[in-house]
Design brief:
Layout (H helix, E strand, L loop, with lengths): L9 E7 L4 H10 L6 E8 L8 H5 L3 E4 L5 H14 L4 E4 L8 H6 L4 E5 L11 H7 L4 E8 L9 E8 L6 H23 L4
Parallel strand pairs: 1-2, 1-4, 2-3, 4-5
Antiparallel strand pairs: 5-6, 6-7
Helix pairs in contact: 1-6, 5-6
């Protein structure tokens, strides 16, 4: 458990690449009184990410780093995070792997949400693999980010049952609903105000 600083909310950056449904959910969570975070920055590697519209809607700064040169863009990103006094990064559908150097240089925790019960099914095409392997259960995991893909310490998981008629898209929708519940819970667990 990590304590937030009294009544001050932790300055948070959300990293996205796509539609931003977890971003939208985290913004709504951040606006509640009990939330320990304040979202101050949205970062994307995709200038066409649909989720960037929430930057305008909720008046949150955003920054795009296309990662044409990993090293240069990571340095720029770190500079921008420091400039905005960011204490926490939440990855929410961010499709770039952060380098070991970036993780070491960022002065704070980095969280990610993954649509499987880690350590099972790291990486992409999770739901197809779960169905093809005839798993009885799947779910989602909030974990710390370390230098290995989807391997950091687990904060919280939510398990759901597979149905016989599940397709990857049906399963993705059901898991996403659980992600929206799990991410705020995991943040509350980590950053208790007590």
């Amino acid at each position: 458990m990590i304590k937030s600083t009294g009544l001050k909310k932790l300055r948070t950056a959300i990293f996205i690449s796509g539609t931003g449904t977890n971003l939208k959910n985290l913004i709504k969570f951040s606006l509640s009184k009990k939330s320990p975070i304040k979202i101050c920055l949205i970062v994307s590697n995709n200038p066409n990410a649909e989720g960037l519209k929430f930057s305008t809607k909720y008046k949150i700064k955003h920054k795009i780093f296309k990662y044409r040169s990993n090293n240069t863009d990571e340095k720029k990103a770190l500079h921008h995070l420091n400039k905005n006094k960011i204490n926490l990064i939440c990855l929410a559908g961010y499709m770039k792997i952060l380098s070991e150097n970036f993780i070491k240089c960022f002065n704070g925790p980095i969280l990610n949400i993954h649509p499987s019960l880690l350590p099972k099914y790291k990486g992409l095409n999770t739901h197809e693999r779960v169905i093809n392997n005839k798993e009885k259960y799947t779910g989602c995991t909030v974990h710390f980010v370390d230098s290995k893909l989807d391997s950091g310490k687990v904060v919280l998981q939510k398990k759901i049952k597979l149905f016989k008629n599940d397709t990857p898209s049906k399963l993705a929708k059901r898991v996403l609903k659980q992600e929206h519940i799990l991410y705020p819970k995991a943040i509350m667990k980590l950053f208790a105000n007590s």
